[in-house]
Design a protein that fits this description.
The complex is a heterodimer of chains A (237) and B (615). Chain A is of the alpha+beta class and 237 residues long. Chain A has two domains: 105 residues, 2-Layer Sandwich (Alpha-Beta Plaits), CATH 3.30.70.580; 112 residues, Alpha-Beta Plaits, CATH 3.30.70. Chain A is 22% helix and 31% strand. Chain A contains five helices and eleven strands; from the N terminus they run βαββαβαβαββββαββ. In chain A, strands 1, 2, 3, 4, 5, 8, 9, 10 and 11 form a nine-stranded mixed β-sheet that branches. Chain A has a two-stranded antiparallel ribbon with strand order 6-7. The longest helix of chain A is centred in the N-terminal third of the chain and has 14 residues. Chain B is α/β, with parallel strands linked by helices and 615 residues long. Chain B has a domain of 226 residues: Cobalamin-binding domain (Rossmann fold, 3-Layer(aba) Sandwich), CATH 3.40.50.280. Chain B has 20 helices and 19 strands. In chain B, the strands form six sheets. In chain B, strands 2-1-3-4-5-6 form a six-stranded mixed β-sheet. In chain B, strands 15-16-17-18 form a four-stranded parallel β-sheet. In chain B, helix 13 packs parallel to helix 14. The longest helix of chain B has 19 residues. Chain B is globular and about 75 Å long. The chains are: A alpha+beta (237), B alpha/beta (615). Chains A and B meet through helix 1 of A and helix 1 and helix 9 of B.
Chain lengths: 237, 615
């Protein structure tokens, strides 16, 4: 039955207004928006049917995003534009659908396609643009970048350097960096870890609530082994 | 977006979404462009307050006025309160994130007595003086409504104005006059005096209370020529014509009740003698089922909820229940929407209906038996027999239900140990009913969850004169029931006995106990309805410190001629009727419900509802 469904991928933002809504609550809010928008969403079979709606990756509480993605499946066809309009009329304040694309039947799922994401970190005041400028290259020239990472059972020193794909100084008046990191089910690095490692490197104490994080975009691999956006790279109709 | 609380603090709190607003269907107005700002305060945590129907109704009712901006405000949870105090962040309204101290009205809904310390705490957090006498023209008008407002005396010293009755009736008039007075630069005092023109509004400052030597009230006397001797509640006559919101606020985090709420009727025909709601909301006024279907449809559409709850004091008493149920079934059958029917009388019809509308989710069945013997059920006029319960359970077991919930009360007037043992026996009999079913038809075991609350005599009920048990009595009785249950399938729990004791003091308290409430708040009491935060020893100290005897209010039998603290308030039901009812209770005599026969309770004076139905 699922094969008869029409598949779509959407790109959306999560702004200041909604950044304190955690992932599970956000999914419920999104499901309700789909219902209000009267979009003919397809449901799973089984004892407790649920909407066929998936997100690429949860966004941590407190993060904003200008490039998040999800997939949905419809029972009846609607144009991508129609879906976008209807969803935008019903989204919670702070959420905007930027783009909707209809996918080919054999497009890979958004969660499995995801392999990298880029973030902007806006540091607390102590991390000045000057500090970033003077240290960012040296930081990346280290042989390894060790942070204490929480695993399921305990805390463990982990080298995060292999998971940092790109990093650059993005400061304006405030100290900011942009980082592209591995993301998804295989390898996943949180930008908090990058921020923590950098602050440790420059001798400042890291407080998990003081920096601001924004997800900029999410990527899949293209045929040449490069990275491409989750809509740009997917097989469409 | 402006936030009253900095991100850093929000990120460090338990559930930051409680303090943000921005829910679906939220009303946003330019606070500079309205004449009246109204803070609707619910003195409990966000998730509780957002599940309250009255808030949903009044929010949109007040906001339908262009000149008024009604915003919401909840009690911050303990963790956030601490941080707000540390950082000098005054209590604010969710929508604008602005301090409520600068609003015109700060309104509290009082849904249970144990919220009073939260009311005080919220005023204090807002930077508003707690006692009325300490407030100035710059402070908002503090107005309180809700079921506890019918005995307003325990918090009369803190409040400017009590609204007795249903909000839809008077708020437009109140706000029109307020706006005019504000424009003319008149004082708050002038405004409050003007409010004396309306029935349904109680301004405590215009009444003096004197006491006898024995501690009882001598008299409650108006001290203003315009103040009426008795203030009568105001209610909506025709619920089909009154405003009901087409949408409701849909929270972005999980709250206690995540669902669309359709209100079938107000009031209750039953007249259970312990039940305050059964008297203060009289008479029963129903909505037509066409109205309800329309409201359900638009609420579902605008909310995206997947559950509709049909609420009222006794859902199955709704006259067009068949029509409504089948209408809802037709409308929502294939839309992944479930319908919940609280307080349903269990018979074959309702079970069949529940089969149809809750196909997969077989929740538990609930019976409010309230007492363990027929005699005591007759005393409280609880119109349900043992046969009703046992037959209902049998039908339910045959239909595949495996969980039964039973509600009881400990400490009802005239109760003996026999009645308490009856609770245990009734639960055991339910289990035995299950074993009457052939073995092959009961693949899985059942559970009977029985819980008992501790009886609290409430104003405006036939038991308003009666003595409440002490918490020691309640504990003994709870244990007695527990020890007499034989079947392992029965789980029995009873309510926090000390909490019920305190509730007993508050429910029938007079103006003097406000000192103890204030003192308890000073000692750190808040969220008293939350078992893990409730601290009875602090309350005992508060009453000791203020020289007030708790048992005078809770555990004393009053005579019919004693002046009660709420004697200047009328809910339409006469004292004469309540006395008759109490006398009948003592004789274990039942009273027919309002549809069977009018018992002349006095509620007919409101000119509507069941009182005028043909019988």
């Amino acid at each position: 039955m699922t094969n008869d469904n029409f598949k779509y991928r959407f790109k959306f933002t999560k702004g200041e207004e909604i950044k304190f809504i955690g992932h599970l609550d956000f999914m419920v809010a999104f499901q309700r928006a789909i219902k209000r928008a009267d979009i003919p969403i397809a449901y799973s079979n089984g004892f407790n049917p649920h909407q066929l709606l998936n997100f690429a990756s949860p966004l941590s509480l407190g993060y904003t995003s200008i490039g998040d993605y999800g997939d949905l499946q419809l029972q009846n066809w609607l144009s991508a534009d129609e879906i976008k309009t209807r969803l935008n009329e019903n989204m919670p304040i702070g959420v905007k659908i930027l783009e909707v694309a209809e996918l080919s039947k054999n497009a890979k799922k958004v969660m499995t396609s995801l392999c990298a994401a880029s973030y902007e970190v806006k540091f607390e005041e102590a991390v000045t643009p000057k500090i970033i400028e003077e240290n960012i290259d040296k930081f990346m020239l280290q042989d390894e970048i060790i942070v204490l990472k929480k695993t399921k059972r305990n805390l463990k020193d982990t080298d995060i350097k292999p998971d940092i794909l790109e990093i650059e100084n993005a400061s304006d008046k405030a100290g900011k960096i942009k980082a592209k990191v591995n993301a998804g089910s295989v390898k996943n690095l949180k930008p908090e870890s990058v921020a923590e490692a950098f602050m440790k490197y420059v001798g400042l104490e890291f407080n998990k609530n003081k920096n601001r994080y924004t997800r900029l975009d999410m990527y899949m691999s293209d045929q040449n082994g490069g990275l491409v956006g989750l809509i740009d790279g997917v097989e469409k109709i | 977006m402006y936030k009253a609380i900095p991100d850093e603090i929000l990120l460090d709190s338990e559930k930051p979404a409680r303090y943000i607003g921005n829910e679906i269907n939220v009303v946003k107005k330019d606070s500079e462009k309205v004449d009246i700002r109204f803070a609707f305060c619910f003195p409990d945590v966000y998730e509780v307050g957002m599940s309250h129907l009255g808030l949903q109704i009044l929010y949109y009712f007040l906001n339908r006025r262009e000149d008024t901006y009604c915003e919401r405000c909840f009690a911050p949870w303990i963790d956030m309160e601490e941080k707000m105090r540390q950082n000098n962040i005054p209590l604010f309204a969710l929508e604008s994130q602005q301090p409520i101290k600068n609003f015109d009205f700060v309104g509290f809904t009082l849904q249970y007595e144990l919220c009073y310390t939260n009311v005080i705490n919220m005023l204090d957090l807002a930077g508003i003086p707690i006692y009325r006498k300490d407030r100035t023209e710059d402070d908002p008008i503090i107005i309180c409504g809700g079921s506890c407002a019918y005995n307003p005396e325990p918090i009369a010293d803190f409040v400017d104005m009590f609204y007795l009755g249903e909000g839809e009736v008077l708020y437009d008039k109140i706000l029109d006059i307020y706006k005019q007075y504000k424009k003319e630069g008149r004082s708050k005092q002038e405004f409050l005096e003007r409010m004396l023109d309306f029935d349904g509004l109680y301004m405590p400052q215009f009444y003096d209370v004197t006491y006898k030597e024995n501690g009882q009230i001598d008299a409650i006397t108006p001290n203003n020529p315009k103040a009426r001797k008795v203030i009568t509640k105001v209610i909506v006559k025709d619920l089909d014509k009154v405003f009901y919101p087409e949408k409701q606020l849909v929270p972005l985090i999980e709250v206690v009740h995540d669902r669309v709420t359709v209100e079938l009727f107000r009031g209750c025909i039953r007249g259970c003698r312990f039940c305050q709601a059964g008297f203060v909301y009289r008479p029963v006024r129903e909505k037509r089922f066409e109205t309800l279907l329309k409201q359900a449809e638009s609420l579902v559409k605008s909310s995206g909820h997947d559950e509709i709850s049909l609420i009222s004091l006794a859902t199955s008493d709704y006259t067009c229940f068949h029509e409504l149920a089948s209408g809802l079934l037709d409308e929502f059958k294939n839309k992944e929407i479930s319908i919940s029917l609280p307080s349903l009388r269990v018979d074959s019809f309702s079970l069949d209906l529940m089969q149809k509308i809750q196909e997969v989710r077989k929740s538990s069945l609930t019976f409010a038996a309230e007492a363990g013997t027929q005699r005591l059920r007759d005393v409280i006029n609880k119109n349900i027999t043992e046969d009703d319960i046992l037959n209902g359970c049998k039908l339910a077991f045959e239909g595949g239900w495996l969980k039964v919930k039973m509600y009881f009360m400990l400490g009802l007037p005239t109760e003996t140990d026999e009645d308490l043992i009856g609770i245990a026996q009734l639960c055991d009999k339910i289990v035995e009913k299950f074993f009457e079913i052939p073995k092959e038809d009961r693949p899985r075991p059942i559970t009977v969850n029985a819980s008992a609350s501790c009886f609290v005599p409430k104003p405006f009920t036939p038991f308003q004169w009666d003595a409440q048990d002490t918490y020691e009595d309640f504990s003994r009785k709870g244990q007695l029931v527990k020890n007499n249950i034989k079947r392992k399938q029965v789980r029995f729990t009873y309510h926090n006995t000390m909490m019920s004791s305190l509730e007993g003091v508050m429910a029938r308290g007079d103006r003097r106990i406000s000192a103890a409430i204030y003192r308890a708040w000073q000692l750190g009491c808040k969220y008293d309805g939350w078992t893990d935060l409730f601290d009875y020893s602090k309350w005992q100290k508060a009453f000791n410190d203020t020289g007030i005897d708790m048992s005078f209010y809770a555990n004393r039998l009053r005579s019919y001629d004693e002046v009660l603290p709420w004697d200047h308030i009328s809910v339409g039901v006469s004292k004469k009727f309540l006395i008759e009812e109490r006398e009948k209770a003592m004789r274990a005599e039942v009273t027919p419900n309002c549809r069977q026969k009018c018992s002349n309770c006095g509620a007919k004076r409101f000119g509507g509802g069941v009182c005028f139905d043909e019988r």
